[in-house]
Amino acid sequence: MIRRHVARLAGACAGVVALLVAGQGAVLAAPRSGDLTPTVVNDDFAAALPVDALPYSNVQDLSTATAQDGEPTSCFGATRTVWYAYTPTTTGMVTAGRCTATRR
């Protein structure tokens, strides 16, 4: 099943807009062992991938992404986050979305 979630940002945007994309995996609090080093380049808030032009698309596996201590949070309690930074060149609306593929 694929689900599409869309967030709309309305109004004048000034400066950089940070977008949180959260992966809600089936495993929320399972013990793990071994190397837990994140392999997702934009896992940390400070390492947000720049979005230089729209439309923009990026496909990532969030299974190794983590939630960083002190990063902005959503009301959904995300356990895996990746970050993007977008600086608008005009005022207007930006639509950000995420598609989730689940296994059966």
What would you say this structure looks like, in words?
It is built from no helices and 5 strands. The chain is mostly beta strands and 104 residues long. It has one domain. It has a 3-stranded mixed β-sheet with strand order 2-4-3, with no helix packed on it. Strands 1-5 form a two-stranded antiparallel ribbon. It is globular. It starts with a strand and ends with a strand.
Report the count of strand segments. 5
Shape type: globular
Low-confidence stretches: 1-15, 25-34
C-alpha Rg, in Å?
15 Å
The helix/strand class is: mainly beta
Task: Specify the oligomeric state.
Answer: single chain
The number of helical segments is: 0
H/E element order: EEEEE
How much helix is in the residues?
under 10%
Largest sheet: 3 strands, mixed
| Overall pLDDT confidence | 69
* β-sheet strand percentage: 25-35%
Number of domains: 1
Topology:
Elements: E1 2-9, E2 17-22, E3 49-51, E4 81-86, E5 94-101
Parallel strand pairs: 3-4
Antiparallel strand pairs: 1-5, 2-4
